[in-house]
Amino acid sequence: MEIIFEKKIVNKIKADAFLFLCYEDKKLFNDELKLIEKLLDCRISNVGLEDFSGQKNQTVLIYTGTSRIILSGLGMKNDLTLERVRKATARGIKKTRTLKINKIAIEILQDQTLEGVEIEDIARAQTISSILALYSFDKYYTKKNRKESSGVKEIMLFSQSNSLAKYSKEIEKGIYTGCVIGESTNFARDLGNEPSNVIYPESLALLVSKRQKERKYSVEILDKAKLTRLKMGGVLEVARGSSREPRFLILKYKGGRSNDKPVVLVGKGVTFDSGGISIKPSAGMAMMKVDMGGGAAVIGVFEAISQLDLKMNVIGLIPCVENMPSGNSFKPGDVIKAYNGMTIEVDNTDAEGRLILADALSYASKYNPKYVIDMATLTGAAVVAIGNVSSIVMGNDQKLIDKIVKAGEQTYDRAWQLPLWDEYDKMIDSEIADVKNSGTSRQAGTILGGMFLKRFIGNYPWAHIDIAATAMRDSESDYDPKNATGAGVRLVTQFLINESK
């Protein structure tokens, strides 16, 4: 799909439909309708507008005889946010799903009242939300009428007048970065939505190995033999019950100077999680193919930053396993040894993600990192703690956490901080090993997951982002689809963009 900034005046644009964003304020709403009539040389009848007044959740399709016009509400002007722009654009463009529309022209919102928001930000926001809203995963349908994807092949962003022509470079930059981030997020969604008989540790490693040839990053793949030599006990033990051997992916992006400390991103890559011997209930288990959402997000971030040419060095570490029950599976009561030599008592084999992350976080120290950020669908308790509107962030460096929270607010791929207070630490003490992989009670499950990881970090600033509540959804929203969402890609990419500046 191509997205461009169309500099022609509106009535010269050849499009199958036009999307305009409308305020709820009565005068502004009426002024917008009059302007549309003037721009497109048409007459908008009140028929079809009876239930549309520009409210923030309203969208309507109207026919003028010469044009198809989609109006999407922003709500009251005083309540405008960049997220409302994203959502209004997303709702409007989703109207094309059932229509034969190949080309759609979208009005760039010309509002300079948002504090700290430039026209480039608006162009990027509308581009990203358009790409995310049109996403579908329908590759396994064999019948055409089952496919849900939109027919849109080209999106043209335009302005009401020539007043934005002087900002064409900024708008085009916003469109480019929006395309990169949106498509990278969708790539992570694809990885999460693929069934686990297609995406498993070896196939994921091979896919990334092929992908890096098209991008400006490299990948090194550690197989079972190399992991055994490195004594990565967490990865090896979790993988033991599966016929699929583990892999450990090391992605490298070198956009900075050779002596610049890298940012290390760690992603949980459990390509399917049955729970192991501590097996999960059958209801909902199919969605455990998305338990590699953290690894998918790291790959998505590398897709993005390698096209944005950020001036920094980034390392990605993705331990990949299947967690399956078998006669060879690791068991509750076992004691395993992690990469850094610490021993772990296994209390619950369904708390496997933290075991493979323990190896990866320990291994991260060898890169002398500036920061380490891990992303993982770590705890179901995150859904209980905060619902699916935000990820959770914890860590040992408040400045780093504040930067992540800020990036989340910028992108609306948000993260909210929970504490890692010392009082929680004793709850993962073991009577026979250095640490236990599950708490002594049902309290503070998400925090205890973070406390466990904290035991394995080195001498570096670290943040843990639990995306268990946001990486998968059971219903679609304005621009997030049902199932895999690509959570974390926009958040961490924005964090890296901020850092590179």
Keywords:
6-stranded mixed beta sheet, alpha/beta, elongated, 14 helices, Aminopeptidase, 2 domains
Overall description:
With 501 residues, this protein is an alpha/beta fold. It has two domains: 2-163, Leucine Aminopeptidase, subunit E, domain 1 (3-Layer(aba) Sandwich); 186-500, Aminopeptidase. The chain is built from 14 helices and 20 strands. The chain has helices spanning 26-40, 82-94, 119-133, 168-193, 201-211, 224-230, 233-239, 293-308, 353-363, 381-386, 398-411, 422-425, 445-454, 489-500; strands at 2-5, 17-23, 59-63, 68-75, 103-107, 154-158, 218-222, 247-254, 263-267, 269-273, 313-323, 335-337, 343-345, 371-376, 391-395, 415-417, 435-436, 462-466, 472-473, 483-484. Strands 7, 8, 9, 10, 11, 14, 15, 16 and 18 form a nine-stranded mixed β-sheet that branches. It has a six-stranded mixed β-sheet with strand order 1-6-5-2-4-3, sandwiched between helices. A three-stranded mixed β-sheet has the order 12-13-17. The chain is elongated and about 80 Å long. The mean pLDDT is 94.
